[in-house]
Amino acid sequence: MALKEDRIGQTWLVPKRLTDFIPEKHICYFIANLVEGLDFKKIDQRYRHTPGEAAYSRRMLLRVVIMASVDGIFSSRRIARLTEENLVYMYLSGMDKPDFRTINRFRIECSEQIEEAFKMTVKIAKKWKLVQLNHIAIDGTKIKANASPANLINQEEIETIREI
Length: 164
Known about the structure:
By secondary structure, the chain is mostly helical. The protein has one domain. The chain is 51% helix and 0% strand. It contains eight helices and no strands. The chain has helices spanning 27-36, 41-47, 58-70, 76-85, 87-93, 100-109, 111-127, 155-163. The longest helix has 17 residues, at 111-127. It is extended. The mean pLDDT is 85.
């Protein structure tokens, strides 16, 4: 049997694009197109011609936050780490590495745009028949709690249990 060589640390003569490593039908492309269709003029105006270091693109931050929601990740620290370690997040962030504080501030300041983007996602998914929203179910299961008065024990019973 032949053994493949270990290629860790190998360099390429011509660097590849991040999209070469991401599957063709990955949801990140849908997210990128979705965010591209949103209007950021009011938000961007707030950051134009202000002193200090340039602010990160609101579009980029929104793409990263939406992708994290799809993946079930809500921690700003974890999202910031993903922009450094995960190819999909690197692609969506354009290789920028926003700090967790930046992501957190963005979520607070632009909550309306985030909400609008999520609503738009549902509308588009419904239009393309990716989801059906005609049935809503509420779980009415009743479970007796362990902390009910019938399950309480007094100090004597605790002592008896310890002796056993």
